[in-house]
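note to self — DONT lose this again. spent like an hour looking for the file last time. sequence + predicted structure for the chain T wanted, 310 res
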Amino acid sequence: MDEIPKYLLTALTNQISTDADTADTRQSILPDNRPLTGEDLANWRNFKKISSADICWLLITPSSKWGEMTNKNKTSNVPPDVEILIRLWDKYPSLIPLPAVVTATELREALDVQMRELGLLLGKEEISGHRWIKYESGDRSNGQNQTPLTRRLSLSIYLMCQANLSNKYLNIANTVSQLRGLGDILKAGTWKTKEDKARLRIKRLHNKVSKDIEKGVYSDHELIAMQEVADITKEWTDLSEKIKEHNKLIDKLTAQSKLLLKRSSPKEVYDNVIEKLSVYNKELVDMHSRMASIEHRIKVLMPSKKRAAK
């Protein structure tokens, strides 16, 4: 790890010195007459308004271990090193290695974009920007808080803006968008690919038709067609998941075949991998073909209103 830059070290030590001057008068909810328990840690986290994801990151502990410590074993004493760290952070909050938080409103102003564009530039959908800003304004019912990852990304973008490098960030965001076949993300207006949209559309159709069948909405004549729709949409969804797994296996085998060539491995070992690759690729083609056939059949069974009107 590189050494801490002197300017940053100076700033940190100054902050810690300020913490020391007010340490005795700063409000604390930690008990000073007994060891800390898991419940004390949970209360402290809430008091400091630190998210569950952030506290796990700070303590370098899995969420399952944090849950066990603060729920299952909440009356037990925490390990000494954890207690020392928490009491230290409580007295000297400048030591807590969490990055600064940039609000969605501050970031939108720094980028000089609309709310719909804000969500897209942070790798989310258009509606996200509206929800973040509503949440920050106190509208909890219609708003939504940013995830820890979005907050990290927001800070990075904000710092890029302060360095007059927002155009460099926009280039990176668009590179990610183009790699997904979406082109300019602000023009595309969504991070959903054609496959994502088809998956969502067919899943919704399956759920709706299945519920309507259960409710007895359809006549006997319609029921036969709708039951077929329910069956083939489920088959399409299952095939979609299988294709994901096949793609992973194909990537793995492709990498393995390259490694075998590089190492001049025995021909029979290499040929065995290539044979498996051939089988998986053929199955992949067959699955895509079947999915296309299902999509065509759905159009026949459930013609759109425009086609039906004609």
